[in-house]
Amino acid sequence: MRNYTTQMDAARKGIITPEMKIVAEKEYRTEEEIRSLVARGQVAIPANRLHTCIAANGVGSMLRTKINVNLGVSRDCRDYDVEMQKVMAAVNMGAEAIMDLSSHGDTQPFRRKLTSECPAMIGTVPVYDSVIHYQRDLATLTAKDFLDVVRLHAEDGVDFETLHCGITRKTIEQIKKHKRKMNIVSRGGSLIFAWMCMTGEENPFYEYFDEILSICREYDVTISLGDACRPGCLADGSDVCQIEELVRLGELTKRAWEKDVQVMIEGPGHMPMDQIEANMKIQQTICMGAPFYVLGPVVTDIAPGYDHITAAIGGSIAASSGAAFLCYVTSAEHLALPNLEDVKQGIMATRIAAHAADIAKKIPHAMDPDLAMADARRNLDWEAQWKCAMDPETAKKIRDSRASEEDDRCSMCGKFCAVRSMNKALSGEYIDIL
Asked: Are the CB atoms for 293 and 267 separated by under 8 Å?
């Protein structure tokens, strides 16, 4: 019988939960270190008490950088079986979280399937589902309708919910006054903005934030405070709308922590490389070290088809500067719903970015596989290299498709291989080239 409501409540009572023990072991930290970080809000362990098959993970800047994969059906691509294949492939490739962003049909069976079968953290965006759930136009929905969907997702076992609480009626005037190049590109943010414009009412996720906290506390749902005003192009990076919303998210973070509700803060977006580090530091200050969850950032706007690369560049800078959670971006970003191969490429690019950042942050044991790979390469031990590789299947496939006549080297250098020459020279052997 739990004698605490949320992970944060337990941590503040001095209780080390089973989830904290799992996270401590994964992160090479003591259980007391994890408990203390959760109590301060600097680590979140999203784990809805009804998601019983979850493999708990901690999200925080001092822990391994975690990866989220966005999936879900749309009106044009409706096959839930294909989405479930993507889910399992994503988990097998190392993703710690899955966000169901479905925008068509009966979403509840898929959401419940995720929380009953998937060990990854599951996230959703209730404002999307509100229109679908009620099958009514946006303007006819009430504040109560939105809050009821927040509860529905919590009851379905979702571990974290993205709620665009920081956009208010004041934002409407800011958007009109400051003339952003791309306006609002957040899908959830645009829906809330449109609803406020059509109804004349305040953002229900902001106005009824206390009621939302009660729901999240009851089920131990982590709030991911969505950045409705994240920049959607380089020109809008670090503008007034983005920073003003971040200040409001810092205020909401304090209110959530007062109720023992865990919080993550969502961030950009598209942003020039030279602004990324500063944005991470500003967030850490304003939001008091709450875990920062970023999309990219995408560092150039002109690479459609390659945005998994532009996002990985920005993600590595962001994570090494304090971001805790990277949302993957695929090559289909801005173009289409990603297929299975797009998902794989997006995950691998994001994993590389996260791993590079973890090495830079000196996360305990982060560089161990790199040291093992160096040993394997020095010894020209290909089987050992496959064991060290993030994606051994792809690496082996490339080598086998262009094999060298000699088993111990690749077809690029042959006998000109520097490793081979050095090994022979240092052991006093004759070095034959021709």
From this structure: yes
